[in-house]
Amino acid sequence: MNLINIALNKLVTTDNVIFNTYTPDKIVNGNLDSTDGFLCKDNGVFVLLKIILDNPYLIKKVKLKQLNYNNIRRCKEFTIKASNDNINYNTILSETLLNNDDLQEFILNVNKAYKYWCILIKNNYSGETGWSNGIGEFQLYANESKYLINQNKDYYSTKTNFLNLGQPVDNTELQNWYNKYGTDDINIITENLNNKEFPMSKNENGIWETDFELDINEVKDNIKLADADENNKSIKYNCNDYRILDLCDDEFDIRMLKEK
């Protein structure tokens, strides 16, 4: 399986007070020097750092590295949590980071993709509560491959919906379809889903529109705008339970695009 660190140079936020130049972005910059990372200014408080990915990813493993400041490694007990709405978080892992300068790996048993990933640092190796917490590196590893369904020569989306994309005019359009309508976890086609997502694009007047028509009769409650960033928007709504697999023909192919 081709796993890559998809947290590299992504946006990191914190509500903790930053000490000097030990800013949150340094936990995802790929610098494995033990003196590089995030450090909280306040002593004896929990540190919460949040990585915001471009899209939900099924994370297979995480790698963490200590920040060594004043000969004290600043992370001991920690918890990793994940969410898709930045409100309701699920606990993914609670562990202890060893007192060394190695890049330490933790395998995750996760069957759902998430967009928001947090690490809560509870204490450090000072042996006292009066020293501040921090961490050197926080890496998230996922399979960067994307999947679409192909049947009767047409391509279909797998990203929380089953939309007929048709036939691409060239490889560039097909690759764009993989990135926009594909999922990195093909197991989603066998899952019971209760919501649908419709990606959007800007029209010639710069107004965002859905790429496909909605069936308003299947909307169970409010339609929500999922604003991933200024170039990536979609709408979502809850609906009756369905499985993508049940919507496929008896014969279909699963096509994969592997990022280079």
Give the gist of this structure.
This protein has two helices and 21 strands. The chain has helices at 171-181, 244-247, and strands at residues 3-5, 11-14, 38-39, 47-57, 59-65, 68-69, 72-73, 77-83, 90-96, 104-107, 114-121, 134-135, 137-143, 146-151, 154-156, 164-166, 193-202, 208-210, 224-229, 232-242, 253-257. InterPro entries: Galactose-bd-like_sf.
Spatial sequence of strands, sheet with the most strands: 2-4-11-8-9
Radius of gyration: 21 Å
* Low-pLDDT windows of residues: none
Highest CATH level, the class of the largest domain: Mainly Beta
Give the rounded overall mean pLDDT. Answer: 92
The assigned structural class equals mainly beta
Q: According to CATH, what is the topology of the largest domain?
A: Jelly Rolls
Based on Cα principal axes, name the global outline.
elongated
Please name the CATH architecture of the largest domain.
Sandwich
Distance N terminus to C terminus?
13 Å
Overall number of structural domains: 2
Order of helices and strands: EEEEEEEEEEEEEEEEHEEEEHE
Give the biggest sheet.
5 strands, antiparallel
Number of helices: 2
The CATH superfamily of the largest domain is identified as: Galactose-binding domain-like
Indicate the proportion of strand residues. 35-45%
InterPro entries: Galactose-bd-like_sf
